[in-house]
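Standup notes
- DV: blocked on the single-chain target, sequence here:
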Amino acid sequence: MLSARQRWLCRRGMRELDLLIGRYLAQGYATAPPAEQRAFQRLLELQDDELWHYLGGGPLPEEAELAALIRKLQNLPPAPA
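- DV (later): unblocked, structure below
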């Protein structure tokens, strides 16, 4: 479960990031394994430009769990209309 502070961190300065993070929260966070939830919490600590670099196809971070989560976010199906 995300704390109020973590939910606040999900609100980013870029609409694209808000959409990606919001989709993950809606489609996967609650049922994710604890290691993936911890990786998501670390992801929220990244600056917007660094996060967008990773999600936009730049080189992934060296940390395996964080890299796997970023690949998962990149491959999430679009939100239903």
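- Follow-up: The chain is about 60% helix and 0% strand.
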